[in-house]
Write a structure and sequence with these properties.
heterodimer; A: 419 residues; mainly alpha; 2 strands; 65% helix; B: 169 residues; alpha+beta; 3-stranded antiparallel beta sheet; 10 strands; 28% strand
């Protein structure tokens, strides 16, 4: 946070700022001291903001043409695709935008896991992030139901039925969620309402996420605190703005590739068949971004425990700041954690792969091993590693290793060779 | 004067919170209950099916309360097979006699008790139904034999109006 008191130059500016200090806020955001060693993995916060705005704007436009009724929803989506001017473009941006949003959020989360961004004093930022991630999954699921295709309908049936695993009140909750005895028109209308609401809840949480971030400031690749702002930081504008802007441009190329060249590759062909409550598609799979959790659900042979395992897999992340006992933030200085980190990345990718495969034979076995490892990583490896691991000494400041004058850097290099 | 002594003001605070809580509860409940099945949904609670065209070994599927109901006319072999199963082999022990009042006709909700998919007819390891979503196998009485589903497929309330018509619900 900038320490100096900001005073607007113009007379009107002063008058306005005394009544509502928006200009002070704008000045804080512009001057916000940012660690100068941030790499491109730190550009995904900006990219995610772009994704959220894109989803809200395209979603607003789609809602002008979409009809939330079980008899008309499917046709209205086809109407958007065929008749509405640029409807195909707007819908493809919205549908692929959801995938791009998750792609960016997974990179953002794994960035935090590698550089220990969730550790003190940033636990609240991290927990708000997990809540945003949960809401993103809810919004994505609700949105996927709206076209009222076969995957929409059966995805909605399977996911709402997860609640029936709750003892005693489960069935009542499911009937309440449906507004009937099966997924039907009352379900569709409420899903549309909630799908419209959630992005604005996310927007509010993003403000809190950034507010909480601006209290301690950004973590950085070496994971140490800023020693001297004048030496270790650069102002957010123009340095980070330009860097984020460039990264966003690269990201938009990938985004545009999906929208214009393979707009349906991330979806399922079955969703171009209108919902039919009498026939379940032969192979039900969720969208790619939910597959690891789906694999965990299916790997447990008991209904209630499967649901518990799936929810725990997400909620365990919220406890991460306390499960990871190491005082060193960045994996750069944690040689063992770095290896376990990449094993975890592989584990999640494997879970995603088996989640897309039929739950039988070898796939089921792999899913079970990978599920067990996922929990072992967080509940056993991380707590023990903090005490057992021999870490590499961290530099004295962000600037030191750049100038090459740090005795710690020499020590770090020496240790690296010895190991 | 003791610090812990209950004052008149404490009583007022407690009474105010209590009345406030009741008021909030009474206001929130309609907001929650409006999501439960409405009168028009509840009104569609029964349906009549003509089963005269169903030959032995065939299943028809009808929609009841938005859910599929399987009506299977079982062959003699299938009835024998369903009756021969020992109770200790079952995850959710139910006699076939209790599931099919008239053994020739099996009427049940075609909804997998795991996560609500519609199982496929004449599939799976037990000559009954197989759910493609998460691999639950049901026998020819609709009882769960293998897979994640916790219970047998549900038998709805139904009766024979005459020999050709079944009323479900």
């Amino acid at each position: 946070m900038s320490e100096h008191e900001y005073i607007p130059k113009s007379k009107f500016g002063k008058w306005f700022n005394d009544r509502l200090p928006l200009l002070t806020l704008a000045n804080h955001l512009t001057d916000y001291p940012t660690p100068k060693n941030l790499n491109y993995w730190w550009t995904f916060g900006g990219i995610l903001t772009f994704c959220l705005i894109t989803q809200i704007v395209t979603g607003l436009v789609l809602a002008m043409h979409y009809i939330a009724h079980a008899d008309m929803a499917f046709d209205s989506v086809e109407h958007i695709m065929r008749d509405v001017n640029y409807g195909w473009l707007i819908r493809y941006i919205h549908a692929n935008g959801a995938s791009m949003f998750f792609l960016a959020v997974y990179i953002h989360i794994f960035r935090s896991l590698f550089y220990g961004s969730y550790k003190a004093p940033r636990e609240i930022i991290w927990i708000i992030g997990i809540i945003i991630y949960l809401l993103m999954m809810a919004a994505a699921f609700l949105g996927y139901v709206l076209p009222w295709g076969q995957m929409s309908f059966w995805g909605a049936t399977v996911i709402t039925n997860l609640f029936s695993a709750i003892p005693l009140v489960g069935e009542g909750i499911v009937t309440w969620l449906w507004g009937g005895y099966s997924v039907d028109n009352p379900t569709l209308t409420r899903f549309f309402t909630l799908h419209y609401l959630i992005p604005f809840l996310i927007l509010g949480l993003v403000v809190l996420h950034i507010w909480a971030l601006h209290v301690p400031g950004n973590n950085n690749p070496v994971g140490i605190d800023i020693q001297k702002p004048s030496k270790d930081t650069v102002p957010f504008h123009p340095y980070i703005v330009i860097k984020d802007g460039f990264a966003l441009l690269m990201f938009m190329i990938v985004f545009a590739f999906f929208v214009f060249y393979t707009p349906n590759i991330l979806g399922h062909a079955d969703n171009y068949i209108e919902a039919n409550p009498l026939v379940t598609p032969a192979h039900i799979v969720p969208e790619w971004y939910l597959l690891p959790f789906y694999a965990i659900l299916r790997s447990v042979p008991d209904k209630l425990l499967g649901v518990v395992a799936m929810l725990s897999a997400i909620l365990i992340l919220a406890a991460l700041p306390w499960l990871d006992t190491s005082k060193i933030r960045s994996a750069v200085f944690r040689p063992l954690y770095r290896q376990f980190y990449w094993i975890l990345v592989a584990d999640v990718l494997i879970l995603g792969y088996v989640g897309a495969m039929p739950a039988e034979g070898l796939y089921l076995l792999i899913a079970r091993v990978a599920t067990a490892y996922y929990f072992i990583h967080f509940l056993v490896i991380l707590p023990i590693l903090g005490f057992k691991e021999k870490t590499i000494p961290v530099p004295l400041s962000i600037t030191d290793p750049v100038l090459g004058g740090s005795p710690n850097l020499a020590l770090a290099k020496k240790n690296k060779f010895e190991n | 004067m003791s610090e812990n002594k209950i004052k008149r003001r404490d009583f007022l605070f407690t009474a105010t919170y209590a009345v406030g809580a009741v008021g909030v509860g009474a206001t929130v409940w309609p907001m929650i209950d409006q999501m439960n099945p409405d009168a028009s949904v509840k009104a569609l609670a029964s349906t009549e099916v003509d089963v005269s065209s169903v030959s032995p070994g065939k299943t028809i599927t009808v929609l009841w309360r938005g859910k599929p109901v399987f009506i299977r006319r079982r062959t003699q072999e299938e009835i024998q097979e369903a009756k021969a199963v020992k109770m200790e082999e079952l995850k959710h022990p139910e006699k076939d006699e209790d599931r099919a009042k008239n053994p020739e006709w099996l009427v049940m909700l075609g909804v997998c008790t795991h996560l609500g998919c519609v199982p496929l007819d004449q599939k799976g390891d037990y000559n009954g139904w197989f759910c493609p979503c998460h691999g639950s196998h049901y026998d020819i009485s609709g009882r769960i034999r293998k897979g994640p589903a916790p219970t047998n497929m549900e038998i709805p309330e139904y009766n024979f109006v005459n020999s050709n018509t079944i009323k479900i619900g």
